[in-house]
């Protein structure tokens, strides 16, 4: 009975503390948003996070990624070769021993703001209106990172000791494939569970889609537009390839029967993002380049998805006399994210769900992620059970006038704090 009372008292303490530091927590998030942190420019926003970790007395590890066999690892994906001046940061709250450990992982990098004319105010203003904090990165995912730090502060500053270690990570390069989280895994950071507070609309995502960028070169034969019949139009041949990709997308998604995808219209899309062909209106184009993104199911490997794409292009070649000789050339380039797949019955899902219910007075909605995260790297490369859960409206990520509801940030902090108390266990 004493143990139950101890947990209840601790839960009340951390929830009360988080409510009392809402203004302080809001200011922390505002400071992070006001420091632009696109790729290669993460240092100032990361400094805000590091300062907070030091204020909390966490054991710090700050390093510039690139060593530990990072670039040669099969899962490495980045077009950067120099990460100087943009470090990863890890802060550890050591446990007393005997409890399960937890990684809390957030990324500090954000996508570009885009056309500033599309924003009502400066993209990095961090202004607050009607309970929402606006700015690039507020939802994706500095709001989640603020929740993590508030949860840790609540436990630390109320004098509660945990048995298990809490490993807070603020990583770079998530938006381009996860090199920062991969570097953390290769540096030896492992735990018995991990939470990534990406913007999930406060849903729990035990499964995450992976994705890869592809490029397909389709050859044609040039000719004058007036005698176009003398040439082979690469755009028209590319249309055959695109038609096959649409069919492939349909085939792949029809195989997905997992109920956690029921509310996602296309679980693993194949998106055509770019098409470039020709350089003169009066000429028959002799080359078309298709670029896009291929979704990868949680329960398949990237190699399996690549093989299926190659087989689909082979089908097109068989059906067309020109393409039979001049086969489309497939390349995989740029960004790549590993999928994640956790059993929804896993203890982490149960504990996080219980904490959610305690704060929100209702059960959480559990489904699969419609996009990729660093969860795939932590789970498939690091062998760490991962749930993606955090504040922020999914649809606001990467949009102009991005915002986050502050109430969701505070609720997430409470839910994560309660999860840490249960998962890592209170040291009596």
From TrEMBL:
The keyword DNA-binding does not apply. It holds the Pfam family Peptidase_M20. Signal peptide: none annotated. Its cofactor is Zn(2+); Co(2+). Coiled coil: none annotated. Residues 208-316 form the Peptidase M20 dimerisation domain. Belongs to the peptidase M20A family. This is Acetylornithine deacetylase.
């Amino acid at each position: 009975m004493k143990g139950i009372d101890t947990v209840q008292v601790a839960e009340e303490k951390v929830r009360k503390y988080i409510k009392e530091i809402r203004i302080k927590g809001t200011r922390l998030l505002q400071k992070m948003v006001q420091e632009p942190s696109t790729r290669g420019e993460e240092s100032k926003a990361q400094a805000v996070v590091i300062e907070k970790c030091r204020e909390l007395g966490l054991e710090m590890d700050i390093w510039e990624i690139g060593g530990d066999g990072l670039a040669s690892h099969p899962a490495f994906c980045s077009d950067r070769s120099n990460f100087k001046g943009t470090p990863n940061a890890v802060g550890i709250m050591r446990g007393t021993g005997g409890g399960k450990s937890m990684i809390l992982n957030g990324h500090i990098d954000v996508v570009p703001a885009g056309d500033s004319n599309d924003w009502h105010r400066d993209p990095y203003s961090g202004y607050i209106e009607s309970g929402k904090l606006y700015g690039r990165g507020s939802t994706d995912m500095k709001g989640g990172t603020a929740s993590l730090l508030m949860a840790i502060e609540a436990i630390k500053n109320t004098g509660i000791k945990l048995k298990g270690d809490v490993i807070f990570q603020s990583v770079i390069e998530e938006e381009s494939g996860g090199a920062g989280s991969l570097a953390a895994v290769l540096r030896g950071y492992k735990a018995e569970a991990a939470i990534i507070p990406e913007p999930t609309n406060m849903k729990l995502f035990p499964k995450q889609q992976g994705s890869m960028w592809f490029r397909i070169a389709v050859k044609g034969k040039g000719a004058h537009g007036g005698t176009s019949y003398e040439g082979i139009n690469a755009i028209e041949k590319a249309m055959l390839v695109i038609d096959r990709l649409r069919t492939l997308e349909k085939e792949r998604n029809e195989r997905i029967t997992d109920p956690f995808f029921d509310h996602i219209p296309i679980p693993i899309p194949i998106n055509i993002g770019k098409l470039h062909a020709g350089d003169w209106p009066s000429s028959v184009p002799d080359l078309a380049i298709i670029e896009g993104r291929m979704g990868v199911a949680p329960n398949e490997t990237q190699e399996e998805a690549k093989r299926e794409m190659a087989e689909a292009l082979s089908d097109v070649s068989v059906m067309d006399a020109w393409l039979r000789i001049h086969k489309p050339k497939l390349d995989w380039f740029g960004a790549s994210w590993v999928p994640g797949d956790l059993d929804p019955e896993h203890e982490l899902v149960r504990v996080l769900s219980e904490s959610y219910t305690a704060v929100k007075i209702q059960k959480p909605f559990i489904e699969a992620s419609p996009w990729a995260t660093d969860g795939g790297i932590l789970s498939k490369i690091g062998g760490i059970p991962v749930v993606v859960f955090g504040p922020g409206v999914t649809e606001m990520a990467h949009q102009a006038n991005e915002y986050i509801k502050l109430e969701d940030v505070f609720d997430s902090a409470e839910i994560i704090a309660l999860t840490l108390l249960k998962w890592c266990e209170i040291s009596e």
